[in-house]
Amino acid sequence: MSAVTVAAPATLPRQDEVLTEDALGFLAELHRRFTPRRDELLARRALRREEIARTGRLDFLPETKDVRDAAWTVAPAPPALQDRRVEITGPTDRKMTVNALNSGAKIWLADFEDASSPTWANVIGGQLSLADAYRRRIDFTDERGKEYALRPDAELATVVMRPRGWHLDERHLTVGDRAVPGALVDFGLYFFHNARRLLDLGKGPYFYLPKLESHLEARLWNDVFTYAQEALGIPYGTVRATILIETITAAFEMEEILYELRDHASGLNAGRWDYLFSIVKNFRDGGEKFVLPDRNAVTMTAPFMRAYTELLVRTCHKRGAHAIGGMAAFIPSKDAAVNAVAFEKVRADKDREAGDGFDGSWVAHPGLVPVARASFDAVLGDRPHQKERLREDVEVTADDLLAIDSLDARPTAEGLRNAIQVGTRYLQAWLAGRGAVAVFNLMEDVATAEISRSQIWQWINAGVVLDTGDRVTHECVRQVAADQCLAMRDEVGEDEFISGGWQRAFDLLMRIALDEEYVDFLTLPAYELLD
């Protein structure tokens, strides 16, 4: 069997603890067994996208109707995943690891995906952070003298780790002339080093699975789990996975996805930005009917978003799985008035989710944990979840999920400016190695940049007319972008704009947003610019 070759830009401290001979052997076997199928499934994505372009439609699969009609449930949730009323998300640097585990949330989504920039230092450092946390050797004092120390085990959040999506490779680890998929690297190293330890702690290797586009991709993950457990002597069914329903195609296959992972599934999660990004990507040539307005105008109360979230709750509870709601991205500030307005919006959002039947929800900052918890406490009380609410009143059709034009909002000039500003600001940080970024009092991740650049591309290609009467063209975007670029340059200073990577980020955003061909994932060309 071919071995994994490490071609890292530099040897990091303690890197050898992660990339042991046995761990690399495990990765090599995962790569040999599963990368060819990964490649086939990525090719199927392209074929399905061609079909959507040809028909302008999506529908529930007729060939899996028997699965949807049959009586089955997922495996019971383990004790550590019974109560998920508040989950916090964030990258796996050492500071975030301590803060998230201590946050008071029930779950921490430890992110190697959209909230992490996949530099080699972050890939290896994140693995070390989690391994150290489980062995209680992560406490540290920062350069300002502030101490970070874990609370007692009983007070810590349960970790649910999110690996990269199937589309991303890890170019620093290769077998022959092929890079190992990032998903297998993140999963494989984490599982190899921590699965047994987590069992000893009374928990287990739990995962969030991002950006699935079909039940066949869920089947692949299930086979990965089955092999990994057998190879390392971990009891079958120990792994638990929560699947993010953050693509429009997956929304039509929720039951099938749970079915494929039924021995390892614990729930589904309702995203927002990635879901909207997926709508643009798949229906980008669908005309005015599929044009999204300003991203901030598309809330979870939009009719097509309500259809998606209510179908998710019904599907989960019908099959005995947890339904986890979306993100509250607000970051508390020093401005009490700003906080009051924002906290009220978060409270209303979480009240709605709890009232709709969700079993828990996400926040991006520890300061929002009490707000979200209060909303779910009011509905759940002492119960760990509300799976008994089957939501049989919900009936959702394909037309409901695709009714993008039901939203009473239109693209605006301010929305275009915001997309350029937010996209540039996020990419500047991502290219510098930071994946969770504060922008205009919100914690943003890759999905923010994806929807920003996708909307610019869509508005150009659909010939959208803004509220100012201006038609969005390449020249219009270039002019607006030049003004926004100058404003950001004035804000941060000429030297910082160049040396701090702002110009590089702006140029990348413009290149992708203005390209005639739509780039499937912004992170593919952006990854080539990372160390």
Notes on the protein architecture:
With 531 residues, the chain is α/β, with parallel strands linked by helices. Helix content is 48%, strand content 13%. The chain contains 20 helices and 15 strands. The strands form four sheets. The protein has an eight-stranded parallel sheet with strand order 6-3-2-13-12-11-10-9. Strands 1-7-8 form a three-stranded antiparallel sheet. Helix 7 links the parallel strand 9 (206-209) and strand 10. The two termini are 29 Å apart. The mean pLDDT is 97.
Based on CA inertia axes, which overall geometry fits? globular
Number of strands: 15
User: Main sheet: which strands, in order across?
Assistant: 6-3-2-13-12-11-10-9
Indicate the percent of residues in helices: 40-55%
Low-confidence stretches: none
Q: Classify the beta-strand content into a percent band.
A: 5-15%
Overall mean pLDDT: 97
Distance between the termini: 29 Å
**What is the structural class?**
alpha/beta
Indicate the radius of gyration in whole angstroms: 22 Å
Helix count equals: 20
Taking the sheet with the most strands, its summary is: 8 strands, parallel
